[in-house]
Design brief:
The protein has helices at about 1-10, 30-40, 50-65, 75-90, 90-105, 115-120, 155-165, 180-190, 205-210; strands at about 15-20, 125-130, 150, 175-180, 195. By secondary structure, the protein is an alpha/beta fold. It starts with a helix and ends in a 5-residue tail after the last helix. It binds magnesium ion.
Length: about 220
Amino acid sequence: MVEKLKEAIMATDASYVVLDIDGTIKDLVKEHQTALQVVVNGFNRGKKLRRKFVFFLDRIAMWFVKSGILSTNRDRQEFLLGLYAIILGKSISEFRELYDSFYNDKVITFKGVRELIEEVGKTKKVCFVTINSQNYNIKKLGIKKEDIYCVKSKKKIYAYKTVMMMNDLDPEEILVVGDNIFDDIRPAKKLGCKYLLVDNYKSKFKRFIAKLFKVGM
Ligand SMILES: [Mg+2]
């Protein structure tokens, strides 16, 4: 995956590469599932059915994330965690607190991603956009801070505009790399930026959706 992505990034003449973090360089599904497993298994000893139900629901939710229909932002995550806590008959705040302590502890990036960023950074300017405030501390990813511009915004389109304004760039000088068709790619397309949709979870459904909405992969 990473080799192909590197080739695609290097093939464009865009001088700025704007990277999404969750699902693009960070394996948020694995991060989330690891934290959830620890928390749920720690709770509710002897209530196997409820635990099974939570993991079943979560698999469905993560399918939507992998297929690029949903991106996990904090609100959606909070909603899911609240739901799981209720199913398990636990206090929502207690559940979240425990989950967060594991979740914040773990940073799982896709294999080869750090090297990719370093390599691309030799010839292009690399910056990151994120709507997840936890990502703001990018040092945790093991990426050198000086190579990074961080722009935080509720909607990615504002983040892209900020990158353009701050660096006095035209849209076509920017390559947006993201995993979500609706949150990352469509706003980039709307602005006239170049874009690359990544498919780290190899979802057939995502390919179908990408075709449907005419965003090439
Ligand atoms: Mg993402």
